[in-house]
């Protein structure tokens, strides 16, 4: 076994490898870029080496830097994780030349599966079922068109060097072919520097079922059950589960044996995944082989009780496989949800920033969390925005599904946007519960999956007002404040009238004026023409609220003047609107500016620099909490310039405008 390995990756997978290596007594070396200087994998490893700037091409994909780090630290092997250099045949060959073990298959095996057309040829010779299609060398538009016509529509165009859905187009009829081919070639060329295409018969409502295979250097090969990865968006997996529901024992065995045949056909070594498309009749067809450990490998570990990273390390060190095929057992059902920092309402755009609040459901035999972040970690724009993988196990699929929904509701993160609500909607959808699965599941259920949780306006506004009141009370209790002064009374002291406080709250895309009246034993909530009785308090990050006799418990997070409350049925965000007003002395001195009322985005600059404005003229618009706020001139004067541009993020209180008031104002 190795004494020291270098992990040529970052984030969740680097942490995952470190945990197993440590359990085996293997010392680990992490590598990191500028952006990852304080990352969790750097903190967990026994040793860490800086390898360059934040961009992956200048750090994690720079083969020379990785190999130099391995040599300088006397690492005997390199684990590539997934992504980056994990399926780079040149890197595997470079490791071999440097006398460093590559924890993965040979360079020739990687090359064999790197080209979709070559892979299909090899699989066809090995007797692995293939989707009817064309993957020949003649790439003229005329030949491709002729093959598609002969196959019959619909067909699927795929880049031969592709992955992740790049260079892929579904063509429903002959009329669409030319335009789709042009677009697919263009995207493939831009993504892979290669515009060669293959054509497959498009299977209607297919399931994506993949088989985990393992081979050693002693001629042994096994499969460790299968996974269903049909829940995808843009060909990227979202929720995976194992075993695949609804398959007969004969079908499982046939797929497993075909996967091992595929691996043997290229003299495979280590962990690999053979991916199949499964049609409604139970026929399966080879799609591709991933020559690395998969992101979703934990669901296989949960149902087999095996540590696949440990298997990788042992096989790479020359050991035989730990188990024979007849010894592998499957117990229960497992599901994995990929939690990403992304804005599902903005086309799943990656969301960056510091994770300022993170609360995880408790781990145990039935719940596992693989992550590379902690509270305070930053999701940078340079890498995949994964926050964590949430994995659950149950005796049955339904038990696993229920545990998944429960764990998602308890998984609470604030800072960057996340896809947790979207994942919860998938897991709780009746179609998912009833195993009505195919690769177009998300498109078919788009309306249900992108629904917002039902807003409970009064509950949320009561929680917002109670939270803001508690924060004011704590501020007034700080050292230096006279807590006996009625002028500092955060309850809103008034002579001969009940104490009251007003809050201008931005919530659910609207602005609300909320008033809390202190009635002694309780607070009275005044909202529009409605009243309600509330009690409760905010202690640290736990919010207790009683609204008209109904009790709620939530978690509370704050960042830059914005707040999040997490309930069991979802979360909501709010802020207190506090417009900054210029005082006359500052304006007269010529150094006045406009302060951002809250953390937000500059939307528009309404005047040109050098423009004279009158009091009340609109000058700049920012968006916060899904609402636009227009900042107006506090007096007549001149807008000398702006300190931000449209699209820029600004912090609460940031100076937005250089403004000089007219003399005498």
Write the layout of secondary structure elements.
Layout: E1 4-7, H1 11-23, E2 27-33, H2 40-44, E3 47-52, H3 63-72, E4 77-79, H4 89-97, E5 101-102, H5 107-114, H6 116-125, E6 133-134, H7 141-151, E7 155-159, E8 168-171, H8 177-192, E9 197-201, E10 207-215, E11 221-233, E12 236-242, H9 249-264, E13 270-278, E14 284-290, H10 297-304, H11 308-316, E15 333-340, E16 342-343, E17 349-350, E18 353-354, E19 357-359, E20 367-371, E21 378-379, E22 386-394, H12 397-410, E23 412-414, H13 420-428, H14 430-433, H15 441-444, H16 446-449, H17 457-476, E24 500-507, E25 510-518, E26 523-527, E27 530-539, E28 542-547, E29 550-559, E30 562-567, E31 570-576, H18 584-588, E32 592-595, E33 600-605, E34 611-613, E35 618-624, E36 627-632, E37 637-642, E38 649-650, E39 655-661
Parallel strand pairs: 1-2, 1-4, 2-3, 4-5
Antiparallel strand pairs: 6-9, 7-8, 7-9, 10-11, 10-13, 11-12, 12-15, 13-14, 15-22, 16-17, 18-21, 19-23, 20-22, 24-25, 24-31, 25-26, 26-27, 27-28, 28-29, 29-30, 30-31, 32-39, 33-35, 33-38, 34-37, 35-36, 37-39
Protein name: Acetyl/propionyl/methylcrotonyl-CoA carboxylase subunit alpha
Domain Biotin carboxylation: 1-447
InterPro entries: ATP-grasp (IPR011761), ATP_grasp_subdomain_1 (IPR013815), BC-like_N (IPR005481), Biotin_BS (IPR001882), Biotin_carboxylase_complex (IPR050856), Biotin_carboxylation_dom (IPR011764), Biotin_COase_C (IPR005482), Biotin_lipoyl (IPR000089)
């Amino acid at each position: 076994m190795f004494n020291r390995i270098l992990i040529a990756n970052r984030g969740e997978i680097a942490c995952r490898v470190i945990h197993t290596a440590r359990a085996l007594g293997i010392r680990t070396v992490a590598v990191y870029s500028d952006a990852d200087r304080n990352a969790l994998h750097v903190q967990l490893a026994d040793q860490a080496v800086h390898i360059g700037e934040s961009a992956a091409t200048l750090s994690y994909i720079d083969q020379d830097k990785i190999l130099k780090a391995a040599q300088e630290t006397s690492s005997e092997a390199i684990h590539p994780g997934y992504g980056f250099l994990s399926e780079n045949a040149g890197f595997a060959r470079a490791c071999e030349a440097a006398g460093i073990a590559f924890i993965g298959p040979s360079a020739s095996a990687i090359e064999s599966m790197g080209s979709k057309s070559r892979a299909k040829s090899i699989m066809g010779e090995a007797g692995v079922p293939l989707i009817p299609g064309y993957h020949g060398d003649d790439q003229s538009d005329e030949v491709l068109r002729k093959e598609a016509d002969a196959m019959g529509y619909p067909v699927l165009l795929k880049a031969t060097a592709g992955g992740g859905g790049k260079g892929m187009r579904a063509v429903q009829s002959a009329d669409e072919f030319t335009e789709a081919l042009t677009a697919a070639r263009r995207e493939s060329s831009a993504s892979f520097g290669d515009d060669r295409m293959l054509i497959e018969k498009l299977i209607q409502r297919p399931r994506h079922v993949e088989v985990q295979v393992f081979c050693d250097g002693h001629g042994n090969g096994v499969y460790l059950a299968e996974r269903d990865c049909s829940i995808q968006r843009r060909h990227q997996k979202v929720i995976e589960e194992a075993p695949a529901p609804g398959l007969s024992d004969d079908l499982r065995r046939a797929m497993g044996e075909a996967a091992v045949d595929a691996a043997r056909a290229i003299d495979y070594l280590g962990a690999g995944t053979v991916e199949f498309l499964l049609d409604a009749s139970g026929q399966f067809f080879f799609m591709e082989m991933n020559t690395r450990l998969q992101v979703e490998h934990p669901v296989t570990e949960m149902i087999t009780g095996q540590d696949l990273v440990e298997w990788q390390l042992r096989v790479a060190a020359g050991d035989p496989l730990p188990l024979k095929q007849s010894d592998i057992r499957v117990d229960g059902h497992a599901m994995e949800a990929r939690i990403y920092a992304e804005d599902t309402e903005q086309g799943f755009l990656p969301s960056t920033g510091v994770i300022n609040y993170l609360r995880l459901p408790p781990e145990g035999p039935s719940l596992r969390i693989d992550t590379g972040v902690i509270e305070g970690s930053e999701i940078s724009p340079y890498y995949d925005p994964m926050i964590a993988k949430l994995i659950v196990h149950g005796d049955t699929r339904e038990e696993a599904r229920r545990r998944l929904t429960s764990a998602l509701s308890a998984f609470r993160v604030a800072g960057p946007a996340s896809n947790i609500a979207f994942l919860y909607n998938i897991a709780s959808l009746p179609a998912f519960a009833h195993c009505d699965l195919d690769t177009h599941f998300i498109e078919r259920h788009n309306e249900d999956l992108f629904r917002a949780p039902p807003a409970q306006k009064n509950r949320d506004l009561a929680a917002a007002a109670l939270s803001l009141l508690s924060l004011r009370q704590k501020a007034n209790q700080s050292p230096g404040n006279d807590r006996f002064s009625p002028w500092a009374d955060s309850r809103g002291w008034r002579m001969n009238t009940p104490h009251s406080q007003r809050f201008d709250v931005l919530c659910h895309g609207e602005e609300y004026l909320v008033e809390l009246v202190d009635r002694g034993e309780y607070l009275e909530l005044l909202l529009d023409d409605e009243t309600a009785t509330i009690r409760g308090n905010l202690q640290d990050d736990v919010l207790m609220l009683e609204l008209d006799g109904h009790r709620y418990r939530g978690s509370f997070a704050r960042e830059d003047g914005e707040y999040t409350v997490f309930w069991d049925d979802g979360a909501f965000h709010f802020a207190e609107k506090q417009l900054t007003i210029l005082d006359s002395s500052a304006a007269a001195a010529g150094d006045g500016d406009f302060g951002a009322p809250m953390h937000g985005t500059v939307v528009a600059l309404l005047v040109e620099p050098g423009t004279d404005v009158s009091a009340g003229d609109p000058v700049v618009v920012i968006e916060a909490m899904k609402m636009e706020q227009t900042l107006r001139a506090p007096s007549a004067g001149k807008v000398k310039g702006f300190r931000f541009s449209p699209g820029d993020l600004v912090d609460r209180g940031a100076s937005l405008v250089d403004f000089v008031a007219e003399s005498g104002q």
